[in-house]
Amino acid sequence: MAARIQCHRLQVSPVLHRFIEERVLPGIGVSSADFWKGFDAIVHDLTPINRALLAERDRIQIAMDAWHRRHPGPIQDMAAYRHQLESIGYLKPRPATFASTTDNVDVELAKQAGPQLVVPILNARYALNAANARWGSLYDALYGTDAIPETDGATKTGPAGEGYNPVRGAKVIAFARQFLDQSCPLASGSHANAVQYTVESGQLSVSLRDGTQTGLQNPNQFIGYQGDAARPTSLLLGNNGLHIDVVIDKTKLIGKTDAAGINDIVIESALSTILDLEDSVAAVDADDKVLAYSNWLGILDGSLKEEVTKNGKTFTRSLNPDRRYQAAIGATNAVDGTVTLHGRSLLFLRNVGHLMTNPAILDGQGNEIFEGIMDAVITVSIALRDLKRKSATELRNSRTGSVYIVKPKMHGPDEVAFADQLFGRVEAMLGLPNNTVKLGIMDEERRTTVNLMACIKAASGRVAFINTGFLDRTGDEMHTSMQGGAMIRKGDMKSSKWLAAYERSNVLTGLACGLRGRAQIGKGMWAMPDMMAAMLEQKNRPSQGRCQHGLGAIPHRCHLARPALPPGQCCGIAGIDAKGRNARSD
Predict the structure, then answer these.
(1) pLDDT tens digits for 176-193?
(2) How far apart are CA 216 and CA 205, in angstroms?
(3) Which pLDDT value is given to residue 527?
(4) Phi then psi for 52, rounded to 5 degrees?
(5) Beta pairing class for 203-208 and 213-214
(6) What is the dihedral angle through the alpha carbons of 428, 433, 438, 439, rounded to the nearest 10 degrees?
(7) At residue 333, what are phi and psi to the nearest 5 degrees?
(8) DSSP 3-state assignment of 310?
(9) Which residues contact 433 (CB under 8 A, 6 or more apart)?
(10) Within a 10 A sphere around the Cβ of 426, how many other Cβ atoms?
């Protein structure tokens, strides 16, 4: 490695130093002198605390191992076990009732519910694809996956190997029309029988095969359109806070054979994305970190591009622009007759946890600094570029002035409090208001799970995300109790009682801490992209009398299922009644 550059007590790799000086600092309003002085102070002030937290992990694990060796096998005396957890500081006192005060959270986390992607930030193409997955073609998703089986001639290729099979296409269109009937039903008739869509006096008008005219059952679901009112090229509909874009083009392959000219249905899909510096990447030195930080910078300032070759054609992939529509009558989010929707997924960045170090920077004693501290300082500094973008025509990530950082593998409330302290120091260094940096807590370590309420309270002004994680959580379950004897296989844990309780508790605790309307409460991931039929079957279970919150079978249909519950009856999640109000205080 080339000679390091001395910045106060820090010894910085030249490639990282050059990146910060030439690409990060210009334009963010922080001088080089102030940056390195502040960075140095944060590293040397907080490193001892970080080390002490890791030593506490070791102390607790040693005590846990010793207890399990004295009490092998399944736990016989749960009261004694709980006393042990409390006596060694593993289980903290449950805090008094409190409510999160997190504010300035973007709507994708605070109000909307939808899928979230996780992608390695070292791969620019993946990062761009994920950011652009905010909007996706329903036709393509149905045609190209096993959501529709390849039976009865509905193969993905035609009988003679053609790239498009009209038999499968017809099934896709039928599925999509049924989707429209379910999400945005007409006042009479079916979208399957529509022959023309027009806009009359700011409202949607639909002509049916039988010659009748109708509109939407709920006219407020019509948000806006593109093109001429008499011949719109797209119709924007809304359902449950999400949007559906019906694309009309009679010159294209599908549209010219469709009675109403519908060529595609584009739906609002991945509302948020975690760009990952941790689980899905291996960044072991300064070169790796600079690549990761460079992609984060490029995707925030809109400059990230990637040459892509597909089907023999090469093109440049970049970030999608925002989507603009002429507003319908009564559209609540219209400005000067225009509805503007975010064209990209809201981006989190998952920093490295408290454990790892990295040789990109050494401290005053020549030790590698903690990578989580390095990530916090540099990635938030980069995010200043997004915070300073105010023009309505510029691509922006947060419209509320927030930076979203997911922090993984934290063990309990003291480690969450340290993350809160770290981000507070970075905010002070950069001149940002308190709690500008929003924290995502990965509930993936058992000491966090059993103390989740205390964890949320430790950063109650900045928590904007809690989520479960099957792989890490089961791994920690094994590690924590491995001295107790043999455990069930990891695959069997998916159907175990404790895992269901863990996921249910995560939702209940988040709601009890007042995260509704302030944060995202997530649930694991679907890690099998080739099994979309299985995903649809699982996600559609609420219509069969299962709770849509993912809690499995229930003795009654929850208020999100059909038929809806009468007011005052609930599915048991923090007492939310059929109108979404708190029905009980627990």
Answers:
(1) 999 999 999 999 999 999
(2) 8
(3) 78
(4) -65, -35
(5) antiparallel
(6) 40
(7) -110, 25
(8) strand
(9) 427
(10) 24
53 close to 414: Cβ distance less than 8 angstroms: yes
- Closest to 293 (Cα-Cα) out of 18, 4, 2, 7: 18
Full 3-state SS string of 178-234? HHHHHHCCECCCCHHHEEEEEEECCEEEEEECCCCEECECCHHHEEEEEECCCCEEE
Separation between Cα atoms, residue 30 and residue 33, nearest integer Å:
8
Place of tokens 């490639």: 15
DSSP 101-134: ---S--HHHHT----EEEEETT-HHHHHHHHHTT
Residue with tokens 């938030």: 380
Q: What are phi and psi of 548, to 5 degrees?
A: -70, -10
**553 Cβ contact list (under 8 Å, min separation 6):** 545, 546, 547
Give the type of residue at 7: C
Average pLDDT for residues 255-263, to the nearest whole number? 96
CA distance 485 to 69: 9
All structural domains of the chain, each given as residue ranges with its CATH number in brackets, are 1-95+342-524 (3.20.20.360), 135-268 (2.170.170.11), 535-586 (no CATH)
CA pair distance 358, 286, nearest whole angstrom: 8
Between the alpha carbon of residue 569 and those of residues 525, 540, 559, 575, 578, the distances in Å are 29, 21, 8, 8, 7
Confidence of residue 566 (pLDDT cuts 50, 70, 90): very low
Residue 161: Cβ within 10 Å count = 8
**pTM for this entry:** 0.89
- The length of the chain is 586
Q: With contact defined as beta carbons under 8 Å apart, do 237 and 243 qualify?
A: yes
Full DSSP string of 372-418:
HHHHHHHHHHHHHHHHT---TTS--S-SSS-EEEEE-S--SHHHHHH
Q: Which helix (H) or strand (E) holds 327?
A: strand 323-327
Mapped onto helix, strand or coil, the DSSP state of residue 473 is helix
